[in-house]
UniProtKB/TrEMBL annotation:
Membrane-spanning residues: none
GO cellular component terms listed in the entry, alphabetical order: cytosol
InterPro entries on file: HAD-like_sf (IPR036412), HAD-SF_hydro_IIB (IPR006379), HAD_sf (IPR023214)
PANTHER family per record: HAD SUPERFAMILY HYDROLASE-LIKE, TYPE 3, PHOSPHOSERINE PHOSPHATASE
Protein name from the UniProt record: Phosphoglycolate phosphatase
Source species, domain of life: Bacteria
MF-aspect GO terms: magnesium ion binding; phosphatase activity
NCBIfam families for the chain: HAD-SF-IIB
Pfam family, one: Hydrolase_3
Length: 241
């Protein structure tokens, strides 16, 4: 069987979301399973690089992580950050301009939000309590030119990434950087939200926990009866351990 690489989402998979505490015992159980398995695990998330660095001080599943919705590749071993080829100087400058506008207007429009800390290559806006990412999407697109950027809704978080940057392009960047070809590998992924569609729809094996949205469940090869980290543990034991 070809070598297997599993790309693993964080929010909704390893945790319940931005404001939820980690189940450390469950995370450590997963870490032990990964260490005993030949499957290579790569975190693939919209979370920031700084978040990944902090998480690595609790548990670590492999050498690499894809962060910022596919815009950055992080190498734990060398503490090295490799931007995706789409992250040109012009794109970075435009991202910074959008960040400044959104920070200045977060409390002056109909829906309020907070900007996720530590983002370097894309933006994440977390809606105020009682509102959703779709509410933030409506306000942002009505007041800001987002041409050249893709917007992804997940729970209360709206992710804004440069066009052509997503989790699948992050996977391609990872494979190119590590000198491997997708055709010679078994690629797998676990995700739960629409931001995971680009990767779940292309890998050889897709799975999700019970809390995944319906569009994700419909395309996955296996849907766990368990939610979040317990769903990931179930998936890993059944298909990768």
């Amino acid at each position: 069987m070809p070598d297997t690489i599993l790309f693993l989402d964080i929010d909704g998979c390893l945790t319940r979301g931005k404001f939820a505490r980690y189940d450390l015992a469950a995370l450590q159980t997963l870490e032990q399973l990964v260490q005993q398995s030949p499957t290579e695990v790569v975190l693939c998330t919209g979370r920031s690089l700084s978040y990944i660095e902090a998480l690595a001080q609790i548990v670590r599943f492999g050498r690499y992580a894809i962060t910022d919705q596919g815009a950055l590749l992080y190498d734990y071993l060398n503490d090295d950050v490799i931007p995706a080829p789409q992250m040109t100087p012009a794109v970075r400058e435009r991202t910074q301009q959008m960040s400044q506008y959104l920070a200045a207007h977060k409390n002056s429009l109909d829906v309020h939000w907070e900007m996720s800390h530590g983002k370097e290559a894309c933006l994440s806006l977390v809606a105020e309590k009682g509102k959703t990412a779709e509410d933030v999407y409506t306000v942002v697109t009505a007041n800001l030119n987002t041409d050249g950027f893709d917007l992804h809704c997940s729970g209360r978080a709206l992710d804004i990434a440069p066009h052509g940057v997503n989790k699948w392009t992050g996977v391609q960047h990872f494979l190119h950087h590590t000198g491997r070809e997708a055709a010679s590998l078994r690629l797998a992924a676990i995700g739960d939200s629409q931001g995971d569609l680009p990767i779940l729809s292309r890998v050889n094996f897709a799975a999700c926990p019970a809390n995944a949205v319906d569009v994700i469940k419909d395309l996955c090869h296996y849907v766990s009866p368990e939610a979040e980290i317990y769903g990931v543990l179930d998936i890993y034991r059944r298909h990768f351990a």
